[in-house]
Amino acid sequence: MVMANDYGDQIKYKESPYNISSDKVVTASGVRTALGTKEDVANKQDTITDNSTYYPSSKAVYAHTSRVDNPHGVTKAQVGLGSADNTSDINKPVSTATQNALNGKQDVSDRVSTFTGNVSDDTKYPSARLVYAHTSRVDNPHSVTAAQVSLGNVNNTSDLDKPVSTATQTALGGKQDTITWETYISASSTHSQYPTARAVYELVQREL
């Protein structure tokens, strides 16, 4: 069998061991050897399978390399996220670190603007304005009594209306009541009348 000279692009097959050339006799052995370098058309597959006999088409390879649905089953551990949970940011639980930080914070609801109803609650704290308002009061907000300021025996009366004290009355007991001085001494004068010095002088002069 003589081959036509149409294998210009297959120079290697003209030489041994193939000897497929227009100027050579084609042998069965040479053809088999040449065919042994070729892949069977039946082995070409449009899908990728686990078989070393088959080979995929370019389309099948491209279809695989273009996939973005994790065709190799890569796990989160393989990408360094083995400890991560598959939850959205909005649904993530409070982390241990965050909780520890929160434990050192005061709840906003514990801040109060009035002392009413929470005076015995150790978890509540007043606002600065509330404290200032209290410390600025001058209406005895703590209900301090006279006894607490060492004035328990004092009566709430003005100086003008105060009664005569015991000590004062004792002192007054040794005093003469206010009298009307007599400017003239006569035989009708009594022991309850007190003459002025002039009245005494004039009496003495009259008796001379």
**Structural category:** mainly alpha
Cα-based radius of gyration, to the nearest Å: 65 Å
Q: Which range best describes the helical content: under 10%, 10-25%, 25-40%, 40-55%, 55-70% or over 70%?
A: 10-25%
Which oligomeric state applies?
A: single chain
Q: What's the helix count? A: 6
What are the segments in which pLDDT stays under 50 over at least 5 consecutive residues?
Answer: 1-7
pLDDT averaged residue by residue: 84
Strand order of the largest sheet: 1-2
Distance between the termini: 205 Å
Q: Topology as H/E string?
A: HEEHHEEHHEEH
Describe what you observe in this structure.
The chain has 208 residues and is mainly alpha-helical. Among the domains are: 1-37, no CATH class; 39-68, no CATH class. It is 24% helix and 6% strand. It contains 6 helices and 6 strands. It has helices at residues 28-35, 58-65, 96-103, 128-135, 166-172, 197-207, and strands spanning 44-45, 55-56, 111-112, 125-126, 181-182, 194-195. The termini are far apart. The model is unreliable at 1-7 (pLDDT under 50).
Briefly summarize what is shown.
Helix content is 24%, strand content 6%. By secondary structure, it is mainly α.
